[in-house]
Amino acid sequence: MSNQYKKRKKESDTHSWEKVERKLPDGFSYYYLICKECHLVRYPGPELQKIQDYSKKNLFLSVRDWILLLLRIGESIYIDNPKKNYIAGITRFQKMLFLIFYEFASENDIPTENPGFYGYKYGPYSDVIDEAIDFLINNENIIATGTKSSSKEKFSLTEKGKEKTKNILSKLTRQQRKKLVEFRLYWDQKTTKGLLKKIYSDPRYSNFLDKSVILDDLFPGRKLYRRRG
Q1: Of 88, 92, 136, 142, which cross-links 192 as Cys (Cβ 3.0–4.6 Å)?
Q2: 118 beta partners
Q3: Considering the domain boundaries, does residue 58 fall inside one?
């Protein structure tokens, strides 16, 4: 568990919780709680169980599902060059997943868990993603090699992880799978800096820049919007 996540949990008495209700086209409904100040997300036990039961036969992807899927798509793209199928660096992985949750999932009608992104040193960050990656590593679904928490840390699927993604992939339509391949290919061709610039230059995500320490590095001499007060 990350130190940042522990700190946020300890500050639970200062959270300002807001109830967010969701209803899917087939009538399935659920809700979660989100802190209006720090974006920490909590799913009450009964709601979490309801979602888990629903997702067994229907399309509803968790954070862990998306981590596995993004890596599995890399396996299919680089089947003839397995040395390229990894994702390098937790910052890059986090930001690709940010775009998955904030753009790709909604654009492709894929109901998804809210991972509770909030603004941190390198822009949008989710403790839930870090926790999910640790869980998948400990359960031998993915493997991380290289220097931890650096751009040289490489995440890839294990054989066990590949097997686990079969059921997840089967829930996606052919078009959704095609779009996910396009997403992975597009961002694989961009640098991490390019990925960050895309997020930082989008006014929709200005509320994630408050604590950033890399604005000047990304946009020298340029003032970007920040959320005020």
Answers
A1: 92
A2: 125
A3: no
Within a domain: 149? yes
| Crossing angle of helices 90-99 and 174-188, rounded to 10° | 140
C-beta atoms surrounding 35 within 10 Å: 19
Do 26 and 102 contact (CB within 8 A), yes or no? no
Residue that is written with structure tokens 């775009």 in the block: 99
Counted domains in the chain: 1
**Residue at 23 is within a domain:** no
Residue 61 CA to residue 6 CA, distance in Å, equals 25
Over the stretch 23-67, which tens digit does the pLDDT of each residue have? 999 999 999 999 988 888 999 999 999 999 999 999 999 999 999
CA distance 83 to 217: 30
CA nearest neighbour of 91 among 200, 228, 10, 183: 200
Tokens 């807001």 locate to: 18
Judged by DSSP in three states, 87 sits in strand
Spell out the per-residue pLDDT of the chain, length 229, in tens.
Answer: 445 544 455 445 588 999 999 999 999 999 999 998 888 899 999 999 999 999 999 999 999 999 999 999 998 888 888 778 899 999 999 999 999 999 999 999 999 999 999 999 989 999 999 999 999 999 999 999 998 888 889 999 999 999 999 999 999 999 999 999 999 999 999 999 999 999 999 999 988 888 888 888 888 866 655 444 3
